[in-house]
């Protein structure tokens, strides 16, 4: 529980104007075992309007937010990072319904009353992901 609350607080700090002076955007590297499958899965997860580019052989980048890219790359062995990449949603129920329609299981919503509603799940490659909604 504390880990989630700290992650959310850190995310709020990062979204505060002026936090990362000089940085226009960020890229998060995401290891996968199949670049083609990952491109399709993350394309579906992020939605059809997500910008996609392939800047170099073996690299696919998808715009996750206006200032953040996911950089997919093939890894022979998946590293154990302990990292969880969480995405803020405006309405957890609506987000879960949207992903269910796409066949993506985003896990059960867990509510910490007055603080957060969150869910955690993995992509098909074992990367830890999550959604969160701030009441």
Automatic annotation (TrEMBL):
Organism: Maritalea myrionectae
Keywords: Signal
VOC domain span: 22-134
The protein, known as: VOC domain-containing protein
Gene3D superfamilies in alphabetical order: 2,3-Dihydroxybiphenyl 1,2-Dioxygenase, domain 1
Alphabetized InterPro entries for the sequence: Glyas_Bleomycin-R_OHBP_Dase, Glyas_Fos-R_dOase_dom, VOC_core
Signal peptide per UniProt: 1-20
Top-rank taxon, per record: Bacteria
Pfam family name, one: Glyoxalase
PROSITE patterns according to UniProt: VOC
């Amino acid at each position: 529980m504390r880990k989630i609350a700290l992650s959310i607080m850190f995310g709020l700090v990062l979204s505060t104007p002026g936090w990362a002076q000089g940085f226009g955007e960020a890229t998060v590297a995401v290891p996968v075992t199949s670049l083609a499958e990952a491109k399709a899965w993350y394309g579906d997860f992020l939605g059809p309007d997500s910008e996609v580019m392939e800047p170099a052989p073996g690299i696919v980048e998808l715009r996750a937010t206006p200032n953040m890219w996911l950089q997919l790359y093939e890894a022979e062995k998946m590293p154990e990072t302990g990292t969880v990449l969480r995405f803020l949603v405006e309405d957890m129920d609506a987000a879960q319904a949207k992903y269910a329609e796409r066949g993506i299981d985003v896990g059960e919503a867990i509510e910490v009353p007055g603080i957060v509603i969150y869910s955690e799940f993995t992509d098909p490659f074992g990367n830890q992901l999550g959604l969160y909604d701030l009441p």
